[in-house]
Amino acid sequence: MDLRYTMLGIVIALIVGGGVFLYFFLPLLSSDSGGEGQTPSTIVDPFGTSGTSGGGGTKPVAVVENEAMKKFSGEVRKVASVDTSVAPGYYELTQNGDVGSSTPYSMYYLDTDKSLTVTLFEQPIGKTRRMAEDDLLARFKISKEEACDLIYSVTVPMSVDADYFGQNLGFSFCTGSVVLREI
């Protein structure tokens, strides 16, 4: 009789354990987590947000291309060549940030998520940011307002400025940008 209760207890424990396992791990095994079925206008944003603000986690973000983004994308395709060795739709807008480079910043555009990344490589970073902004506005024929409407980040490596490393500094003329200390 004790053997039957023991076997019954084991079976119940396995059923409950299996149910708990499926409840917690089945969503991770679904086909949605692999990015399949995403359209080109849907991205997974690793920061959990779009635009200049930060966040956390991973969630799907629908990119609705506004007029400024469409204009900028068109100008990028005219001015820059795509570099598919890095990623599909990756446009290196500057050949900078390398040793001996004459421009103290780099800019690249990723067509798949319509994002622009600007990295500042030289102190004072306020001056470098203004140089990058002026270059962006002139080369791509966009206004300050249109630049603010882009999905973008302005960053600085830790080796250049540990205080601002890991932050999206934004463009100086956009609401919410980081006010940089002058050196």
CATH architecture of the largest domain: 2-Layer Sandwich
**The top level CATH class name of the largest domain:** Alpha Beta
Inertia-based shape: elongated
Give the CATH topology of the largest domain.
Transcription Regulator spoIIAA
From the alpha-carbon coordinates, what is the Rg to the nearest angstrom? 24 Å
| Low-confidence residue ranges | 29-61
Give average pLDDT, whole number: 73
Describe the structure.
By secondary structure, the protein is α+β, with helices and mostly antiparallel strands. It folds into 2 domains: 1-33; 63-183, Transcription Regulator spoIIAA. It contains 4 helices and 6 strands; from the N terminus they run H-E-E-H-E-E-E-H-H-E. Strand 4 (105-110) and strand 5 form a beta hairpin. The radius of gyration is 24 Å and the shape is elongated. It starts with a helix and ends in a 28-residue tail after the last strand. Residues 29-61 have low confidence and may be disordered.
Summarize the topology:
Layout: H1 2-29, E1 42-45, E2 59-62, H2 67-79, E3 90-92, E4 105-110, E5 115-120, H3 125-139, H4 144-148, E6 151-155
Parallel strand pairs: 5-6
Antiparallel strand pairs: 1-2, 3-4, 4-5
Output the keywords.
183 residues, alpha+beta, Transcription Regulator spoIIAA, four-stranded mixed β-sheet, two-stranded antiparallel sheet, 4 helices, elongated
